[in-house]
Amino acid sequence: MTHLAVICDWPLLQLGLTQALEAQPDMRITALVTCVDEFTLEAAEVEVILLITPQSRDQVASRQVARLYRQGHAVIVISASGAQSDAVLCIKAGARGYLSRQTDSSELVSAVRAVASGSDYFGASLAGRSIPAPPPHITGRERQILQFVADGATDREIAAKLSIAENTVHTYLERLRRKSGSRRRAELTRFALENGIIGDDLLE
User: Fold this and answer.
1) First and final CA of the chain: distance in angstroms?
2) What Cα–Cα distance (Å) separates residue 46 from each residue in 2, 54, 105, 117, 200?
3) Is the pTM value of this prediction over 0.90?
4) How many degrees, rounded to 5, is the angle at CA 129 between CA 127 and CA 135?
5) Gyration radius of the chain over CA positions
6) Using an 8 Å Cβ cutoff, are 76 and 5 in contact?
7) Residue 54's Cα: distance from chain center in Å?
8) Distance of CA 87 to the CA centre of its chain
9) Helix/strand/coil (H/E/C) assignment for every residue in 54-102
């Protein structure tokens, strides 16, 4: 079962999305809010967030995507903008999927399933266009590991703080090395900083 959050301030569009997604046996909407701030307050456990941006050429969307990405969420943007530059901004900010307002329900479902499985999905409106690769998706647990690494904790210390086996920490670190292309702990810390996973204050 894929648990979803929908961030949209159009009531009728909310209704349509809800009907399309909850008709699927493997999908359930657990949070339905009008803005990113409300979702933060909900603190819902979700695998995929649908962020609907009705304003054309609205760069605020990319900042919202970046905020959700830093929190460890996989985001699909449904945008009213037809500009490739807006899509690029959102993808660089961490969007795992990007769809246009012309998207039908079957493509929406395909996008959700792809992103939930760990893949990216960029709609037909971007087919054949040059778009950047999104930053790697880092899970909530992986973010915790990165924060401890940046703080100088050893593998044993991380295991004790998270109440997990040290071998499990090694597994997480290996996944992070594959995702980031970084081998050393200092490189992992730099990766976390560059992608907004940790702040400068944690390095002071």
Assistant:
1) 41
2) 8, 22, 20, 13, 28
3) no
4) 95
5) 18
6) no
7) 19
8) 15
9) CCCCCCHHHHHHHHHHHCCCEEEEEECCCCHHHHHHHHHHCCCEEEECC
Residue type, 162: L
Task: Please say whether the beta carbons of 76 and 65 come within 8 A.
Answer: no
> What pLDDT, in 10s, does the model give residues 117-128?
989 998 877 776
Alpha-carbon gap, residue 153 to 171, rounded angstroms: 16
What one-letter code names the amino acid at 46?
V
Tokens 């961030």 label which residue? 7
What is the tens place of the pLDDT at every residue in 156-171?
A: 999 999 999 999 999 9
d(CA 73, CA 142): 12
Rounded Cα distance, 154 and 156, in Å: 5
Supply 153's token pair.
């904790």
